[in-house]
Every structure is written in structure tokens, then in C-alpha cells.
Amino acid sequence: MSYSIIHEFLLGFIKIHILYHADKEPVFGQAFKQELKRHGYDISYGTLYPIFHTLERQGYLHSKKENIKGKIRKYYTITTKGKRVLQQSRIKAKELFDELFEK
Amino acid sequence: MSYSIIHEFLLGFIKIHILYHADKEPVFGQAFKQELKRHGYDISYGTLYPIFHTLERQGYLHSKKENIKGKIRKYYTITTKGKRVLQQSRIKAKELFDELFEK
DNA sequence: GATTATAATATCGAAAATCGATATCGAAAA
DNA sequence: TTTTCGATATCGATTTTCGATATTATAATC
């Protein structure tokens, strides 16, 4: 079976969405997933965590482990390089969306 | 190597984009690809044609072969079922985009 | 009427992305 | 020192995407 059209759409801009959020405040995997879920969208941990790792490896995010009530969280915040990429990407994405679809 | 953030975004809504166009006028693979190219985006035939096939198999598009100056084109137009799906998808996609990203 | 040219579609094996399930981690509590 | 638990990490299987190559069908050329 294949993924739904909307799920594909969500996956397509998940990186932009992560950068967008990590620009506002530190984010971590579990909460990020749950926030999406609240909106009615589901993304697997097997997809999500590797995306965080990739964005960090590419230097767009940087992480810091924190001990919250005895549990370890890995908070990600955007880097300067990440901000540049986000800036470009969000402009392009908006353009593309309007241009090719919404008019 | 991985695909670029914008390319991923494009791929994410390629089906919606195809349905959207096929709702306005008949579309065929070659021209569709070239139109994207004019906008600066590239998608492989190995990706594009199977997507058309899938959308047809799912009953969202229906095709008709035509002889244009001795060359065969397969024109796709949207079906009633496709219109329903497009309607739902575009609303959801817009919502999702605004909600999770643009505000 | 056989051969060549060509616009367009179709397909294939390899690479990448995604999933869902399971494993691991690390500190606190028991 | 064992158990608990929120959270991250990873694994094999499935699905998607790519770029290259093959195929199709007609027109033009000889």
C-alpha cells in the first residue's frame, strides 16, 4: 500500500517545518511528534529521528542533551547556517506552492 | 546523497499539482515535466510516469491516447472521483501549510 | 513499402526514504 | 542493584525515486 496524498505532502515539508520550529524554540523528537499528532498527522519515529540526525549532520541544527526529571531529552536549536537555509527554503516553498497550485 | 529540501517539498505535492492541472485541461507527461523545468524544478520521468499510472489506477485520472503530428500522446483528465480527492486534498494541504509553517 | 527519425511513454536495477517494531539509554525510585 | 519509564536509536522490510535504457507509433525519406 502507498501513503496518502496528504501524508506525502506532510513528509515533503517536514524538514522546513522542523527548522521553522527550531528557530522559535528548542524542539525534541517526542514532543514534535505529539504536536503533529494533535493536528491529526502521524509520522513514524523511524522517519523522524533520522531526519533530526541528518539536519544536524548537515549543520542546520545543533543539539544539547538535557536531564528533565531524570529523563534525557535531546533539544535541537537552529544554527546560523540553518537559518540561512530556512530563509531560502521558506521563500521558495511559498512561491512554489502558490505558483504551481494555489495561484 | 539526499534530495534537496525544496525538491522534497515539490515531490510532496506533485500528486495534488497533477490533479489540479488535470482539472483545468488535459495534461501529458512530457509537457508537464517541461513546465516544471521552466519554473526551475526537475522531476525524473522514472518518477513522473509511474505517478500518472498510480493516479489512473486509483481512478483519479483517466487517459486517452491521441495522435499529434504522428506522435502518440497520452492525455490525462481528472475524473469525478479525482475531483473529490483534489477538493479534499487541496483544502487539507493549504491548512497544513498555513497551520504548521506560515501562520 | 522498407528504413530512418523522433516525440513520447514505459520500464528496470540501484539508491534513498519510510515504516513499525524492537532495542537501548540514563537517571530516579524502589 | 533492580525496576521503571520517558525518550532516543536502530533494524529489516517495504515503498519511492532516480537516471538510463528500451519501446512505441507514426511521419518523412528514400
UniProtKB/TrEMBL annotation, chains A, B:
Pfam families, from UniProt?
Answer: PadR
Residue ranges annotated for the Transcription regulator PadR N-terminal domain, each copy included: 18-88
Q: Which InterPro entries match?
A: Metal_resp_DNA-bind_regulator, Tscrpt_reg_PadR_N, WH-like_DNA-bd_sf, WH_DNA-bd_sf
Instruction: Return the PANTHER family for the record.
Output: PADR-FAMILY TRANSCRIPTIONAL REGULATOR, TRANSCRIPTIONAL REGULATOR RV3488
Q: What is this protein called?
A: PadR family transcriptional regulator
Native source species:
candidate division TA06 bacterium DG_78
